[in-house]
## 1
Amino acid sequence: MVKWRGLIFGLLAVAAGTAVAQQAARLSPTVATEQAQPTPATSAAPGSPAGSAAHELNKTDLDAWLDGFMPYAIARGDIAGAVVVVVKDGQVLTQRGFGYSDIEKRNPVSPEMTLFRPGSVSKLFTWTAVMQLVEQGKIDLDKDVNAYLDFKIPPRDGEPVTMRHILTHTAGFEETVRHLIHDNPDKLVPLDRYVKVSLPTRIFDAGTTPAYSNYATALAGYIVQRQSGLSFDEYVERHIFQPLRMQHSSFRQPLPKHFQPLMSQGYPAASQKAEKFEIVDPAPAGSLSASGADMGKFMIAHLNGGAGLLKPETAKMMHDYRLDVIPGLHRMALGFYEQNINGHRGLAHGGDTSLFHSDLTLFPDDGIGLFVSVNSSGGQGAPRALRERLFDEFGNRYFPDQPVTSRVDAETSKKHVEQLAGSYFNSRGIRSKFLHILDLISPIAIGRDEDGKLSAPMVTNTAGKPRRWVEIEPYVWKDLDSDEKLAAKVEDGRVTRWSFDTVSPFMVFDRAPWYKDPAWLAPALYAALGLLLLAALSWPVGAITRRRFKVAGVYEGRRLRMQRIWHGSQWLALATVAGWAVFIMVGFSSLSLLGGPLDPLLIAIQVLTPIAFLGLLVLAGWNLRQAFLEKRRWFHKLWAIALLLSAAGLVWVAFAFHLIGFGTNY
């Protein structure tokens, strides 16, 4: 699945020196399949810069370029293997395997036979199945989906969810991670159960906010299942795989036995051991296993007006719909999202499991499709870097265009940057449950650099370095070194949200409300925890000091007991905070741990949190009262006030970010 907590940072040098490429090729074998030579593309794309004609897109040029790019890229990125498929004009131009599907056995990647896990690219098959049923009149894109379900999705502000909302990721669901991905087939959650037990809260009004949702895609697959009378797996096999003769593809988990020997191993990195086959609980959102050759057949069908799958008018409806949320950026179609380059329209979908990373892009006006998948997470963000550079360099090589030269004047641009500056929450996030705390501890900030120009730390280039933004239209910025754009939405003279091309079709960043703004609340929280830690440590330190110097204690009797309870509440609050930190760190070290193994810890923390934090607040109030009743010195009074404010801050964070609450569906 596509996993958007933030961008993956990485460094991958993709150089084309002959000696380096040859050395990498010796380390990572390539497997190519010869195809009939299609009619060559024109030598220059429309709008190409004068004196800078496009390379001719033919098999000879493409293979030579891939041979210089891919072997070095996967070797440098600590990636075991990859597959690349390019189609044009209804034919496979080239399909290539690079590296190994099994390092230990030294099995090279075969583009025809080796199965990869394309993650969320699976969604395109689910959307295609939905549109087939739309053709048949079994699904209405604008009807309340509750009409197709055996359970109810609650309305929000009186508005229901429709299939159009689901196809455009605007149903308003918050993110959910509990039942997402693991490696235990015995714990696979069946689709009919998954959509009921994992129902997320709707946090946005339908149709207003792109918020990528694996759950919504699984819901669409369940509707396909109910409306067709077939299991989702069987439906896709009968109505997509069989018509296209995709003989090396399956949504089934675990894989059928005859496919298992063909499945590529998945690696954290080529230098590490392979891990088990991944199980995706929201299966229609990401459980596909397929060969590169089969993905080529799927691309050809969509480029050819849906031939074999959809009527031309249905395919056109699917491809040409545009949801324009922030003008100037890429938009969402029905299932596909835009990824344009150099003035050429691209329809795409990316996908990531924990181990496999993929991209599929169609250029419908050019009759060209590009698919890439790698079987390793590699090092230093290598999959992101490889996919990004492959797409950019492919576009620049075969679709060059004139650079954008328009600019907003410097003073106006500085004002716009100031308007944009601030803290934001990702629309693909969790807002109604305890993992909302991630928005506080890992904030998304945007603002200006020392020269007054736009600085967006999370939107880095391939090397993980800051991009060089220039405002080309009001509130639209472009990276000087790529086709990437960033834009903001302005309402009543105030910037309310922004996004950037790579994610804008399915994800935006909304300004954080002042009362949850990490810019002040995060430092306040850390200061509160620091004061609380000092206060807690003063108890044992004071006791040791008094014992060492044989000094009698200040309190006795009931007063002493209350003082001990007060100090004990401090340690209990700190232990609760530590428990939340352990849960988050351990849980996100492996998503499979979020499916149940950590539930005892979570339940314990949820029980402790209101007791510890509210108890701390009450006792901090008592401590302040005692400071005045006992006529302590001014320092002790100020210290008591600081501790009361610290306790109040902890309670506020606990309520605002839903740490006080119960439940294991998150």
## 2
Amino acid sequence: MLASKGVLLQEEIGNLVRTEFGQDPLAVQLVADFLGVRAYRHELAQSLIGTARNRDASWELRRACVLMLENQFLRLRPAGGEEELWLCSQIGAQVDSSLRVRIGRLLRIHRGIRGRQTTPAALGDFFHVARQECKLTLAPYFLGAEEVASRIASHLRTSQGLIHWTNEYEAADLPYERSIAARLQSESRVYWSACNTPRQINSLVEVPIGTVALTLKLPGSDVEFEIKRSGIRSRHPLDVRVFEGTYRLYGGSSGVSSDREARSGVRLAELYRRVHDTPPPLSSSCDVFSIQSVPAWQGEVHMLDYFTDRRTFGNGFGEMRGNMQATVRGLLPDGAALEAPGDLGLTVEFLRMMPPRQAWLANTTSFRLDVLERYLSPAGAESYFARGLARDYTADEARRFADDLLEEILGVYTPPADTTGSYSDYVARAYAEPANRKRADRTYVSLLRQTGDLFGTLLATWGCSFGESFVRRNVGIRSQWRNGEWAVHIIFMDHDALWVPGEAAGDFDPKISLEGLRFDNGYLFAQEIKPEQARGTFRTLMRVYRVDAPVIAKGEAAFREACEKAYRKTRWSMLHNPQVREMMDPDVVHKIADWEAVVWDSVNARRAGAEDSGWESGARSRMQNRGYASETIDEWLSAANQSAALLDRYSPLFDPKYLDFSRSKRQPGG
């Protein structure tokens, strides 16, 4: 019986190897050698290194060899000995105790490899992780930037563009990742999703389900890139359609939107970095390309031909042209005529008003909160596999999907031993694991603290995003290696409505600030702003992490404390940090201080039950003495009155005892 069982196991494992690598004899031999030992073997490590570097070997085998080598690395005894020195020298890695910790994130996978006692399920788990290049810590030492870029490009369509804008700071950071990006961007190529572009999570290049973006999750990297607006997966990569009552460039991004996002996002990121001396929890534009041509159904064509010629565009041409005309008419001043006549003139006018652009963003995440909530719900596996990927799935695939999600939101993850029952049962048991429960609670509080750091920094400039940067569909989570450990970070994305005052004198208006703050506050806290955005970001985080009332209270306290400290530190930096001062016009800084005084008077008067006219007369007199015009004074006082409830919520920020930033009081945290 035991012998027959062993034969069956060998047959199952053989089937797994053939499914993964085909009839590759080298793969069969290496997997057999790998499963033939339960300890580190010098000869096996040598063989794995050689195959991982061999460009004649299949990509699938090479990345599996990287994970097998990591398994061998973890089995080295003693750690830090001569054999580890030799192994690191062969790999090209520095001898560093943190390398073992970083690789050890996948202990849940490596513990299942038990030599000849390895089960098919455990080996299936191992192969599943090997397909996710971003999780292979040692992959950058074996998978070169040129071949990675080539593999990414093989899954995409391309066309011609022109560089429109670049962020030199980002270009100087992340050498391996930017080297891959530089190769992809050579000759100013722009990229479009194709029918063979993967949609599975954690793919090297991925079209996240339900989006028109591409994400790049590069080998061994915890930083994701997004190519924003990569077209529609059809013969029409770009179209002009009606969406929510407005006409827009469907599948692409207009120049106005991408330019604003690039400049505003970089400005806030740089301000945050200078104030806090730490990376900001924001996506940041690296490069923006103007699109010159598109991959139409008959091949690459110029944008003018694509939108003007019926035969080039193909089916749907008439509807597209009608929508284009309506768009142009809607954007022209009343009664104005087209500057250029005829069919080509309409195309030129449309492209002048909505020039198509494609942006590269760094520090993004495809694990956005609304997606995570849906995938971790009882119907999550069905949503991903059946509706998203349009295929059937096994119980093991559903379990691995849950493990991938939970590892991302927890940083380090311990799967439950009991794998029976439904997808929902398995996810519930995973959350209930003591180690996972502790991490989930701690991470939830940390994410709210990170949000408070950013929100307080933005509020100190009296900037806002009109909800766009804080709505849950534009907020995501990513596990990253920082300061010698895996930690979970929140990332705020899509900054095309972001406004960060202070670039020039007069660049401050409390009415605009309060209107934007109302949306930002609402999308963070409220359950409903609009029917299609019925859940706030913080409430979604509660459901993703399944936290109880005491942890929710800790999170709220952490947000308030971080927001207040960040606000005061940023305000102090505007006066005393030379790097921050150069980003803020003195006129704006002085007006912010005057506006804070108005808000504090307003809040205190209402709390004391005083008549509005009492505090208003004092504020009016002070502003007159400061040289403000009567019209400006009326506008400020009216704005404070109309937003009284909102300002009261953030009243601790405006307490004068924390905003006296004379050099004798050097505590920006209050």
## 3
Amino acid sequence: MQKLTSLKFMFATTAVAALASILLAYLSAQLILALNATIESRTDAISLLDDTLSMLKDCETGQRGYLLTGDPDYLQPYNDARAPLGDDLNKVDDLVNRGLIAQTDATRLHSLARERLDSLQRSIDMRTAGDVNGAVDLLNSNQGKQIMDQLRSLVADMVQGERSSLRAARQRSDQVTRWRSWTYAGLCMGVLAILASAFGRIRREMSASDAAARETQRQRDLLAVTLASIGDAVIVTDGAGRITFLNGVAEKLTGWTMAEAAGQPHAAVFRILSEDTQTPAPDPVDGVLRDGVVVGPANHTLLVGRNGAQTPIDHIGAPIRETDGAIRGVILVFRDFSEHKQAETKLKAAYESLESAGKAKDRFIATLSHELRTPLTPVLATLANWESDPNLPDNLRGQAQMLRRNVELEARLIDDLLDLTRIAKGKVPIQLETIDVHQTLEGVVTMNGSEINTRRIRVSMLLGAADHHVMADVARLQQIFWNVLKNAVKFTPEGGRITITTANDVPGQLRIQFDDNGIGMSPETLQRIFRPFEQGTLDMPRRYAGLGLGMAIAKALTDAQSGTITAASNGLGRGSTFVITFPTIAAPAPRAPHTQSSPPTPAGRPLRILLVEDHADTASVLRRLLAGQGHIVATAASVAQALALIRAEPFDILLSDIGLPDGTGIDLIRQARPAFTAPAIALTGFGMEDDVARCYDAGFNVHLTKPVNFQKLVSVIREQAQPHDPIRPAARGVPPGQ
């Protein structure tokens, strides 16, 4: 009876230990998740603070370039950074609310940032007003440097604090992970040691008497069944390291049966090698018998089976002790690690495949962008030249301006369509200015006039909003209205009706509503109308042309400009309604009457320009227009022709495409430098960040993305031809003149 009670106590202890291990695993997992969330938040906070300081530096760079040159193009970094900077400062407030940043630090950061931005804006306003000396004096004053020094010091202190908290969280996470592993291993080993101890006790009782032997055998069988039922492989040895037990999993992995292994030295059955070196690994049984402590857990080990097959395993060994503390034997637990290794290998292969696919996608996008942009270059250059021609009749000048605007919009559309992921993430660049929404709507309707008239659709414009000016990007706003109107025209039958209404239903807000009596939308369509590549019902892509990107792009651009867009319909065949809202701003003061300025004339001496371009139309148009500016232009259509011309005669400017039939513009400039010291301008359809970086690294002074406004190209050529050293951009992504 006493023996039975003792056995019950052992199994009860085992059950309690098992439950305790489950509870400990759950609690430690929750703690690790919380610590990981803290680590992620601290990391985001550090990145946000670094981005805030970086954008303030970008603002300074743009301000200084503008004060020194008076060229508004240098304000591009300043304008690009202001809006995201405000968003980042708002995110700093969110970090304060979450307890990640001190309120006093956030308040001081806001104050210093506003003070610096106000100082920058004052100097820009002075330069714009013509007060060059005042602007330069303000630039040379020590006030801006003091503010930036305070900002750098403040951000450095805040980042240091976040990093200290991050290190503490990581250390705590590592401690909890190690504690969990050792606690779990200890519990498992404790349970297995209890079971093994019971097994040894049963064996001793068997020698006392036949009755005791039968009872011991029963207990032994019970323990053997228990050990055999464990999912991991189990080996038990005596105090001399000889095998006394193998469960079924251990038999399968080692290739030894229990009958064959009994009494064998453990090293003959449990042979292990280091996975990295293929040399014998430290023996866990010897370690336990020598030191009397748990050995492991360990992985990166190969178990050599009886047939020579190698199996990746992880293992742990623990001593089996008598009541007096003497070591009676060792219990060794191990398991097949093959599936884990295979999964790890597959994951690595999948990652490499994904990375390769990403690079292939980037190459495809870069090439497609180049091929789409290149034909637009001669068109845009010709239209810009027509606009600047004082002899062009006024009626044709307006048409040329309309064509130029649409070509430029097409280039913007290409950028958006080729980088939909960037738009969906809200990272599309926005250039905010005061926009008259009514004028923009009228312009969009006019641009779609041909298709509207062809389909005999009646478009009514009820522009009743008194406040119809918003702060937005004119091209992006035009693109939003274009996509919504094109959608309405596409899904409205011939002879149908479209109504465009504006109103100020809510003070400080402009509502723009597009109503049509077209095919309408089902509730299911309404749920996915703003998702990329969705286009109503499944048969719509066959009945109506398009990729289903228009509404997704419209929503992304609307969200990026603090607006909203919603869709509604009473059902199929009952038309659709799209409502766009934007915050309004005050109307700008009336401008002085516009007078047609005379076309710019070439400044300084005529330049000898080498134009390297394999697109015949682009080469022809640019050569003619540059010659019209008084320059001497030689053309080449390949790297070899360009190098031959460079060796034969001197040039003041190199203007080169990147994609050429026998190489690239990168190859050309690398072979030409350093013997060719004249400024070099890359004019190319390859406009991704890596493309820009490669151009500057190879030796180009300026990178311009096709299509480029001809007057901008002339301005960049004139700037680079100045006797001073060419201005290199502070950041690769935004070269001057871009």
## 4
Amino acid sequence: MVLLALVALLAAACSNEPVPQPLPPTPTPTVSPTPPPGTPSQLVVGVGDLPGGFNPHLLADVSPITQALSTLVLPSVFRDDSAGNPQLDTSVATSATVTSTAPFTVSYELNLEASWSTNAPIAAEDFVFLWERMRAEPGVADAAGYRLITAVRSRAGGKAVDVEFARPYPAWQHLFSGLLPAHLLKDAPGSWVGALRNGLPASGGPFKVNTVDRGRGEVVLVRNDVYWDTPTGVDELVLRRLDPQGVATGLASGDVDLAMPAAAPALRTALVDLQPAPHTQPAPRAEVVTLGLRTDTGPLRSRAVRQAVAGLVDREAVRAAVAPESLAADAFGRAPSQPGYTPSAPPRPDAATVTALLQQAGWTRAGPTAPWTLNGTQVRLTIGAGAERPLDQRVAAAVAQQLTAAGIATTVIAPPAVDLFGAATVPATPPSARPTPTPTAGPTPTPTPTATPTTIPTTAAAPAAGVAVDLMVVPRLATADAATGIASEFGCVIADATSAEQVPGPTGFCQPFLDPLLDELMAADPRPGTAAVVEKELWSQAVELPLFQPVALVISTPAADAATSVGPGPLLTGPLTGAQRWRALPS
């Protein structure tokens, strides 16, 4: 038999016919494994960077993820509908009405079933805790309405609350959103920041925070089993940090169900080859990135210097370099995507005006490319951006490049955002990875000739303690009431008979002559021209430069659309609004 087989092989080798080769194995289609019975249903959402903390009332924690957790985990008396109008959330309060005008009083009747996931009732003490913290803590967002409150009184064993105000406040429905569990936080030192650094300790909504894994970049929400209203449609909602390529790969493999990262050219490039093409929807974020100029200390105490430095910053070039798909912001009261937004920015001053303003403040330079000096010493401005906020650090780098080119030396630091927005001095921590703005097409105009980089360096600081920041990148939270937002940022915070001493805002700005106008804006019937007068004065004071409103891109597949109907959502609650009603995608 062996001899016959050998003869056959030799004959085949001598013939002109090729030897048949075995066919390659048929590839097995890739199919996502069917989860075993009892596996929790899950939706995975691709997101951007995790914030430094999850307190929805802190400027340092402003982010889409904090917004999502506030919407799905924390109780709010009112929530915005799809048109942005506040609607009573009857799972939290059965009624909320103005019951007196002298003094102006709002009475809340709380749902008797409403409780925290610890089984403690959602009650009057939660109202008191939020009110007190919003008046006393530094770096809070949208606090002006809380400053008008003179008393919070409990009735019916804590299940009814009467809130008295110093004067009528038409926007009262926007207060007491994102209530926090006072029974866990009120007696814990530093709990306003520390206890919310890695999650939320209790839930008063349909989901609760199960884990926050910063190493993996993942936040896992699970169904709140003691929630008294309709239970969630899925057991788990996973928020997973992904870069643009990770979003595309995850959607293609089915490991990611939908995504809502920052809109960017790199993201759109990564999505090009996906088939079928995903559904993409722009979703403006509930913040405006701004550049704050310190008014209470350092060289920017001078209004003339602030006006000059503000004139040197090309706001459009910063936006184009850092967030080209964002919305340009040219006003203080409203974000660009909000109804009623009206640009109010004046023309940018020319080079001669900038030079005159600096010389008026005593600044000098030896020539058009020489560094600016004050009293014989080279001027150096410190620019701060939150250590946990990569976008803000890229903005700081772009601003530093522009000021350096204009003859003003800069140092960029990245201290913890909580310190940056709440303390007079901060550690001079260098950015962990120095961000470089992406070059953009076309020239970037500057009011002064370009200085040589070796003459006016931009540096990252060495670690040290106790430096004052001259400029800082600050997220301005988009607010439901424009007047309250402006008063929160720019009103003087002064103790009186009805309120405690309050911490000034991040820039230390206070102009008492503006306060009557801000009070008027917050009243029921302000004069038609008051808002324009305030906007004009704020631009003149140069205390803050609005830069842009970031935009996310909501990305979904046809299957995800069918299961979630995901969309941009109301601005103040975001794309995850209504996620408790979403269903898991079929396996």
